[in-house]
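note to self — DONT lose this again. spent like an hour looking for the file last time. sequence + predicted structure for the chain T wanted, 220 res
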Amino acid sequence: MDPVTTTPSDRLQAIADDLAATEQRIADTLAIVAESAAELRRQYRAADKRRGGPGSADARKYALGSTLVMVGLDGISDTALLGLFAHPERMARWMTTAIAAGAGPMIGDIISSIFADPTRLAWCDQWGRILQWRRRKALYDQEVERFLKTGPIDPKASWRTQPISIGQAGLVATLCELLAVPGPDLKNRGEAFEWLRLHNGNPTYWCEPSLPPNLEDDNG
């Protein structure tokens, strides 16, 4: 495209086209990058003593986070941001609309404008919550589902009195963060088992959200 004749509208359309073209690739990647239970347990065990040297995963995450801060995304919910990034075609349309309305110049300003609509924010937040929790599915299945599949759960089983496992503690902490609830006072493995089962089973938190009526017009 000739840079001399390129208009702002042309550039916006090019951005929208590029983002839309990545939707399937991102969807394939998100489908869903579920960690193994062993790896999730290792991550939770190492969380309080993790050190990131040059080139480490932690260092890369820190660098990426610093970049996001520099473009104005530091005050935006990471959960809602994940939900938005997971839908690049819709994000492109919303960004185009926000820019046309004067949002900018940084991407953080544009996304803040998108999230100024509480229905958009709630929709993205719900998707982000779902995607983050699905990533822990393998560990949840191992800590909860395998007990349920073996038959009736004995309320007096000896395992219930054992200390909370590393996997359970990590899952509880993750759910507390995702659901914005205070950390529970769980005394043993049985109490943690019941708490996890209850909170994972609440459809309010885990149903994939449809677009609210006032956002359906964005489908065009």
